[in-house]
Fold each of these.
Amino acid sequence: MADTMAADAGTRRLTVRIKRYDPEQGGEPRWQEFQVDAHPMDRVLDVLLSIKWNQDEALGLRRSCAHGVCGSDAMRINGKNGLACKLLVNTLQGDVLTVEPILGLPVIKDLIVDMKPFFDHYKSVMPYLVNDDPPPTTERLQSPEERARFDETTKCILCACCTTACPPFWGNEKYVGPAAIVNAHRFIFDSRDQAAAERLEILNDGEGVWRCRTVFNCTSACPRDIHVTKAIQEVKHAMLTGSTSLND
Amino acid sequence: MAALEASRRVGTAVVSKLYPTRSHTGAAQGGIAAALANLEDDSWENHAYDTIKGGDFLVDQTAAEILCREAVECIYDLEHMGLPFDRTVDGRISQRRFGGHTKPNPKYDPSAPAGTEAAKPRIPVMRSCHSADRTGHMILQTLYQQCIKQGVAFFDEFHMLDLILEDGECRGIVAIEIATGALHVFHAKSVLLATGGFGRMFKVSSNAYALTGDGPAIAYRHGMPLEDMEFYQFHPTGIYRLGILLSEACRGDGGIMFNGQGERFMERYAPNLKDLASRDVCSRSIYQEVRAGRGIGGKDYVHLDIRAETMNKYKSSPLHPDQNVDSHWVEKRLPDIIEFARTYLGVDPIKEPMPIQPTAHYAMGGLPTDLDGRVHRNARDVVPGLYSAGESACLSVHGANRLGTNSLVDLVVYGRRSGRAMADYASRVEFHSIPAHPEAAAKAAIDDLLGRPRTEPWARLRDEMQATMMDHCGVFRTEETLVKARDDIANLKQRYQRLGVQDKGSVFNTGLLEILELGNLLDLAEATVASALARRESRGAHSREDFPNRDDNAFFKHSLAFANGQEGARVEYKDVDVIHVEKDGERVPKYPLEVRKY
Ligand SMILES: Cc1cc2nc3c(=O)[nH]c(=O)nc-3n(C[C@H](O)[C@H](O)[C@H](O)COP(=O)(O)OP(=O)(O)OC[C@H]3O[C@@H](n4cnc5c(N)ncnc54)[C@H](O)[C@@H]3O)c2cc1C
Ligand code: SF4
Ligand code: SF4
Ligand code: FES
C-alpha cells in the first residue's frame, strides 16, 4: 500500500467563510472570513474546531462523534448539506470553504439551528414498534428477507440533512419532511409491527407524503446513503395499494 | 434503559447535554454479548467464566454471573421492543465471534501436540448478537423510541453542572440550559448518573468529544471515590492518527493484523486465539512490534487486513474451513467499517489493508456501584438516592479489562436493574428538602470563568493533558512515566485555575462548557494516575513495565481514589467479590485464579 498516512502532503491555506449570527447582538446574520492552514486529510469539522479553539471561541456549532454516526453537525457546506465530520478537505474544490446553517429551521446562533420542529415531526409518525401481542419467551422470528426489507431506513441518524435540503419543507415548515417519512418507513415495513395503517393515515394528511414532489435533493444530501426518495415512493405505494407485503 | 424501566412506575426525566440520539452508544459497532446459543452450543456459565478471566480476575463474581444470566432475557426484551437484529436463516437472532468469548473445546486433549486443534482447551464461540456493524446505533434508537412511546420527559441539551447533596443524600442536580444559559434545579428523589466514558483524556481516542466523564468527576469533587481508575482499555484497532474505531468484529469475522514484515504477529503473542485474544493483549503486542521496529515502514502503526483473499488464505473467517468468503460477504458484514476506511483513510479495505494503532477506548473504572446501581461512598456505605449505570459506573463486571460486546450488555442489564431500584426507592421515600440556592456553587464557578480574561487558549491545556496521558499513562507505564504524568497534571490543574472564557455570551456558550469539561477530565486524570502509581503490578489493561507480573498477594483488590485537595488523590482498596462452592466437603473458589493466557 502507498504510505498515504505518513505522506504529509503539506497543508493548504483555506479561506473559510462562515455565516455568523449572535442572538445577543441581534441584527442580521453576517459573513466572516478566517484563514486556516488545513491538512488534506482534515475533516471540515477539524477546520471549524481549529477556528473555534485558536481564533474565536465564540463560534457556535454542534459536534460529538466526529465520524458521521451521531448526526450533530449537519450544515450547508459550499452550498450543499452534509456532516462537517464526513467531508475531507481534500475533496473540496478551490481554496474557499463556505459554511452556513442548514435551511428551514430557525437559527439560534451561528451554525446552530433549533432542532425542535424537526424532532416534533419525527415524533408525529409513531417512530416505535407497536405490537400488542404477548411476546414469546424468546425472540419473535423474522426471516433475513423480511429483515432486509427495512434495513436501509434503520440507518437514519436524525441529522436533518435531508429535510433541510427539501424545497417543499423550506416553503412549508408543517410538511413532516423526508426524515420523518424515512422513520415511518422503518416501521411500516417491519414484519413485526402492527401500526402500519395508522402511520399511513398520518402520512396521508395534507402535510404528509403528498407534499413531496420528488425533487431528489434529500437522497443526495443523506450522509448515510439512504435512498430517501425511494423510501418515500414505497410509502406512497403502500398508501395507494394498502399493502406492505414483500411482493409488491 | 434505566429511564425506560423507572418510567413504568414513577415520574422520570432524562437530562442530557446532547440530543439523546447523539449519545456515543450509537457509535458501538460490533454487538452485544449473550449466550443465546442460536448458532452453536453455549451457556451463560461460559460467558461468566470468559468475563472473569478477561478481566484478569479483578471482576466481582456475583455481578458477572448476574450480567451473563440476565443478558439472555435482556436481549429478548430488546428484540420485543423492536431492535432489528440480523437474522439467521431460521429467523432467529444472528450471532458472531468476538475476542475473548470462548467455550470449552469438546475435542480437547491435554496430551495433544501443541499447535493442533485438540491442544486448545477453549475455542471461540459465536455469542455477539449484532445488527450489521451498527448494533449500538440500533440499541440507542430502539430505547429512545420506546421512551417516546412511553412519554418519558426529556430535557435535551441541558448540561449537568452539579449534584445536590444534603445530609449525605443525593436530592437532585443543577444543570445549565445550553440554549439560554439559564441554570435549572432538578429536585429529585433519586438520581442516576449515566454520563458515559472519558476517553477524551487521551490524545488518540475512539470516544466522542462529549465523553468527558462529567458524572464521575462531579461526584469525585464531592468526596466520592472512583474505583479501578488505573484500568483504561486501549482498543487495538483504531484508525491511524484519528483513533476512530474499526470494530473487533473485523477480526471476529476473520480479519488479521500484520506487521511491517508481513508477519501475522499475534501468532507469537497468543498462539491459541491469535487475533482474537483479548484487547489488552493485542494492544500491547502492537506496541511491542512498533518498538522492535516492525511497524509498517518502521513507523508507529500496523495493518489490519479484512480482504477476502487474506481470510481465505488463513482460513480465518467463521465460515471456514467449510467455505471460502468473497468480498461481497465482507461488505455485507462490515459495511460501516468499510465506509469509515474509505472516507477517513482513503483506503479501500476490500483491496488494501488498513493502517491502525491502539486507541483509548473504554473506562473499566468509574463510580463504585452495587448490584442495584447504588453508588458507594466508601468500601461499605451507599449514598442514598444516587445511582450510576453504564460506562460511568464500576460494578465491577469488567475488572481489569473488558471483553468486547460486554459493555452494551452491561448498560442494558444493569440499566434495567438500577432503573427498577431507583423507582422502588423513589416510591418509598418522600421528597427531602434542598437548600435555598443549590445552584450557587455552579453559578459562582461560571461567573468566575466569565469574569476572567482569556489568558491562554484552554485547548492548549487540553492538548498537553492528552499528550501526557497518552505517553506516560497509556498502554505501558513505569514509576518514572507515572510520576511525570502526575506532575504534569498537577501543573495543568494550577494553570486551569487561571483560565478565562473568551465568549461572554449566554446562548450556546459551548466554549464555557468545554472549559468545564476539561476541568472534569483533569480531575479524572489525577485519579487515574494516582491509582496507576499505587498499583505496583501488571494486570489486564494496567501494564507496569517495572512490575511485569500480576501480584495476587498484594493487589487482588479494587482501588478507590478519593480527591485530596492539593495532595492529588488518596488511594484506598476494597476486596474483590469471590464466589465459593463446596467441593469434596471444602469451600473453594468457584473461579480459581489462573494465569491468563490466550
Ligand atoms: C466506537 C465505539 C464502539 C464500541 N463498540 C462496542 C460494542 O460493539 N459492544 C459493546 O458492548 N461496547 C462497545 N463500545 C462501548 C460502549 O459503546 C460504551 O461503553 C457505551 O455505549 C457507553 O454507554 P453509556 O450509556 O454509558 O454512555 P453514552 O452512550 O456515551 O451516553 C452518555 C450520555 O450522557 C450524557 N451526558 C454526559 N455528560 C453530561 C452532562 N454533564 N449533563 C447532561 N448529560 C450528560 C450525554 O449527553 C449522553 O447522552 C464501543 C465504544 C466505542 C467508543
Ligand atoms: S424528494 Fe420529496 S422529500 Fe425529498 S427533497 Fe424532494 S420533495 Fe423533499
Ligand atoms: S434520512 Fe439521512 S439525511 Fe435524513 S435524517 Fe436520516 S440520516 Fe439524516
Ligand atoms: S459529529 Fe457526529 S455526525 Fe458529525
Amino acid sequence: MVNLTINGKVVQAEEGEVLLSVIRREKIDVPALCHHEAVEAFGACRLCVVEITRQEWDGWCDYVTSCLYPASDGLIVNTHAAKVNDLRKTIVDLFLARHPKCPEIIELAAEYGVYSTTYQTVVDGDNCILCGLCTRICDRMGFHAISTVGRGHGKEVSPPLHKAPPDCTGCLACAQNCPTSFIEYSAAKGFLTIWDKKFELLKCSGCGKETITKVFAEHLCQERKIPFEYFQICDECHRKQLAATMGEITSWDREAAS
Amino acid sequence: MQLKNPKQLATLQKKYKAAEERFPKKVLICCGPGCLASGAQKISDKFKQVLKDKRIKGFSVEALKETGCHGFCEQGPLVIIEPDGTFYTRVKTKDVEEIIEMSVRKGETIDRLLYSPNGDGQRIQRYHDIDFYRHQDRIALANLGKISQCNIEEYIALGGYQALAKVISSMKPDQIIDEITESGLRGRGGAGFAAGRKWATCRKIESDVRYVICNGDEGDPGAFMDRAIMEGDPHAILEGMVIAAFAVGSSQGYIYVREEYPLAVVNLQKAIEQAEEMGLLGDNILGSDFSFKIRISRGAGAFVCGESSALMKSVAGEVGEPRAKYIRSVVKGLHDQPTVLNNVETLATVPVIINKGADWFKKIGTKKNTGTKAFSLVGKVRNTGLIEVAMGTTLRKIIYDIGGGIIDDRPFKAVQTGGPSGGCLPESQLDLPVDFDSLTEAGSMMGSGGMIVMDDKTCMVDVARYFLGFLVNESCGKCVPCREGLYQLHALTVRVCEGRATEADLEKMEKLSNQVIIGSLCGLGKSGPNPLLSTMKYFREEYLAHIRDKRCPAGVCRELITYEINDKCTGCMACIAVCATHAITGKKGEIHVLNQAKCTKCGACYAVCKHDSVVVS
Amino acid sequence: MKNRFIVNPDLCTGCRTCELACSFTHAIEGLRGQTRIYPLDGGFKDLWIPVVCLQCDDAACVKSCLVDALRRNSETGAIDLNQEVCVKCMACVAACPFGCSVVDQQHKLVVKCDLCGGDPACAHFCPTKALKWNPIEPQTRKVAV
Ligand SMILES: Cc1cc2nc3c(=O)[nH]c(=O)nc-3n(C[C@H](O)[C@H](O)[C@H](O)COP(=O)(O)O)c2cc1C
Ligand code: SF4
Ligand code: SF4
Ligand code: FES
C-alpha cells in the first residue's frame, strides 16, 4: 500500500494501481471516454488527464492520463487544476468540432461550457470518436474481427477490407460498448445484421424468443465446453423449467410426508 | 568458415588486407540512393563490360567497387579513383572508357569530369580538398564510399569486427557499458538519450529475455543518413548490435526497416547471412558461449512507427500505435521485456568507440555532446548531400562552408532541422552550435538529422503548413490532441496562407499548440506544433503580413499573389505553352498578356520564364 | 464462507416479498433494479419455487464469460458479476441453464444474484423463512437448518 494525496486528501492505494481507479474510489468525477475495465488502458481520449507533482519536484508539475499512470508513494494529484480543466475544455472543443452532431459529445461539451466549437467544424464528421473500445473489446473477446484502419485524421474503425468480417460472431460486444452508439446493427425475423454480416439468431424452443447468434453460441460451446442444449431455451424458460423440476421433487416430498 | 576465436579473425583480417593491397589502384563507383537515381548502375555495368576484355597492369574488375553513398549525391554519379582520391562527378556511360584508359591505365586526370565549385572552370582534383568534404568529420559514415556495399571481407580488411573480438575476448559487460557511458554517446535518433545509461538500465532489470532493436525507420521526409548506412555499411550496424547485446545480455535482436528501403533490407539480410556464416553472429559468437541472433522486421513506412513504443508494437505484429511510456520501454518493451532501442547511427558508432576508446571519442564535439552527427543537407544550398560533422559545428559552417552557401547567392532565410517535429531557425541563429541541447533550446530539434535550407523565396507560413499537413496524415490517430489538434492547427495555418485569418487566430494557434504539446500521448504529438511555434516565434512579421496586409512576402501563397508579365518579355511563347488554362496570349516577339481571370496561379509561367519577366506581386 | 443460502420451497407462499427486497436493494440512483430472484409456480397446487442463482461450482456463466467478468467471491461464496468489466455480450444470460443471469432492461445491464455482498436482503424479508441465510458450523461445516 502507498499513500498519495488527491485534491488535498491523503488516500491509500495499491502500489502501481492506476490513478483513475483510485480517483473513482474517492468518488471524484473525472471524465474518461476510452476506458473500460475489460481491456487494457489505452490513453486515447486524454480526458482523464490530471496534474501530478511531488514534494521533491520543487513545484514542477506533469500532466498525465490517470487511466494509465501508476500510483506511487508521495504522489500529489490534482484532478481539477486550472491547466487540467483548460486542457479538458480544449479536448471537448476539438471533439465537438469533429463530431458536431453527436449527442454524447454535445452533452459533454456543454458540461465544460462549450456550446459551439471554437474550431473549424469538420464537415463530414461522424459520431465515431475513435476511442478504440470496440476493437479492443473485440480483441479481448478473442475475435479480432474489426480494427482501426489507416492513420491520422482519416483513421476509421472497420472490418478487414471493409467487407463482412469473417471472424465476427455477432456477439454485439462492440456495439454495446460504443460510447456514442455509433455501431449499427439490426435484428429482425430471426436474423441479426452487424458489419454487413447476417447471423442466424437462436430461437427459444419454449417461447420462441430470440437470444444470441448461433455462431456465438457455437463458439462458446467449442471454446468453453458448454453443452449446446443450454442455448436452446431462453433465460425465462430456463427458470420455469427449474421451477417445474423443483416443484416435482418437492411434491414427492409432500406426498411422502402426507 | 566459422571463426572459432578472436585470433582467427585477426589472421583473416591480415589475409583480406593483403588481398586488398594486391591492387594499388581502385575504382569506387558510388551506388548510394542518390547516384543510383542518376544512373550509377549503368556506369558500373559499363565499367565491368569494358574491363572484361582489357588487361591493365595492377588492375582488374576486382578492384572495382560499388560503394555506399559517398555523400555528395547532387554531383552524382560519382566515380573515385583511389589511392589519390581523384573525384569524378556527373559521370556518364560514354566517359567510362576514357576513365579506364586515361586515369586507370595512365594515371592521368580528366579535367572535364572534375568538380568545379563555382562553375568557373576552376577544378579540384581530390575530394579531400573539396569544401564539402574538407570540413567534415566522419565516424558513422566513415566506411561509406570506401568499401563495397555489404562485403564482409572488405569490412574485415578495414578492421571490422575487431571491436567485437575485443569485447568478447577481454571485456566484461559492465566495462563495455562504462566505456560507452564514458564516451558520452547520445542516441542519434532524435532525443539524444545517453546510450550508456539506457544499456545500464536494461542490464539491471531482472529478466530472462532482453531485446536489442535497431531503429531504421527513418520517416522524416528528406532524411537518408540511416538508409545510406544500412545499404552501404550494414556490418557496422550488426557489429554495434552484437556489442550492445553482449553488454546488456540479450540473445535476440531486430532491425526495423521501412518497406520503402528495399535495398537496405536486401543488404542487411545479406550481411546477416555473411556474419552468421563466419560465426560473428548467431550461436557461439567467435567460439564463445555468447549467442545473438538478428531478425529483420519490415515496417509499413509510417512515420509514427519510428517512435519507440509504436515500433515495438509493429515488430510484435500489432498495429503500430504508441502507448503511454510511464513505464519506459527499456524496462518493458518488446513483448513486455526489457528492450534497448537504438538508432542506426548510434549503433554504427559503437564499434568505433570500442576500438578507439572513449577518450578519443570525447575529444570530438562538445562536452555534453560528444562525437559527430550525420545530416542530410538539402534545400537551397549549393552542395546538397550526406554529411557528418563534429557536434557543436555551427549552422553557418554547415550551410556556408560545407553547403557552399545559398544557390544563386540569394539571401538565406531559414534552416529547418529535426524533420517534421523540428523547427525553423532564422539567420540570427546561424552561429548556433549544432547539438541536441542548443537546438532544442532554440525551439527546434536535432531529430534524426534532416537539414533543409531555405532562401527568401520560401514562405515560412507555407512551410509550417506543409509540415503540419504531413503530421495530420502521419499521426497515428490514436489520441485526440494530436489527431484533432494538429488538424485544427493545420486548418488555421491554411487560413493564414489564404489571408483569411485574424490576429486572434494567431493567439488561438499558440494556445492550441501548447495544449497539443502537453496533451498528446507520444513524441509525435508532443513535438508536432514545433514547426508552427518556431516559425511564429522567428518569423512573426511574415504571419502578420499575411493577416494584416493580405500579402505573402515570399510570393508563395497562391491566394495572396498575382502573376504579371512585365516589359522584359521577349515574346518567346514559353509561358503560353505551359499555361494549362490558356490565360496567357500574345504573338511571337510581342509582349504577352496574362488574363488574371483565367489564371489559377499554378506558377508554371513563373518557373519557365528565362527573362525574369513573369513577376509575382 | 461463513453462511449458506437455504431455500425451502415448502414454506414459500409466493408473496414475492423477496422480489421486492431484491429489486430495491439493487436500485441504482433511486431506480429499482431487476430482481435476481423469481418465485415461480411449481406446477402443483400452492407450490411456489423461489428460483435464484445456485452459485454452481462449475458454473456455465463463468465458463461462458470471455472477459472474466464473473468470478467467485471467496468471502460470500457468490459468483459476482463485475459491472465494470462486463461487456454485455449476453453469453452468460444465454448459457445459464437455470436462467439466473438476467438483463436489467432499465439500467441496460446484465445482472445476477450476488448474495447482496454477504447479507441477502431476500432472506431478511422473507416472512415465512422460506429463504434463510444460515451460519455454517465451523467444525462440522454443517449448516443449521
Ligand atoms: C514520432 C517519432 C518518430 C521517430 N522516428 C524515428 C526514426 O525514424 N528513427 C529513429 O532512429 N528514431 C526515431 N524516433 C526516436 C525513437 O523513438 C527513439 O528515441 C530512438 O530510436 C532511440 O534510439 P537512440 O537513443 O539511439 O536515438 C522517433 C520518435 C518519435 C516520437
Ligand atoms: S501523439 Fe499522435 S502519434 Fe502519438 S499517440 Fe497520439 S495520435 Fe498517435
Ligand atoms: S454479459 Fe457480461 S458477465 Fe455475462 S458473459 Fe458477457 S461479459 Fe461476461
Ligand atoms: S480514459 Fe481516455 S485517456 Fe484515460
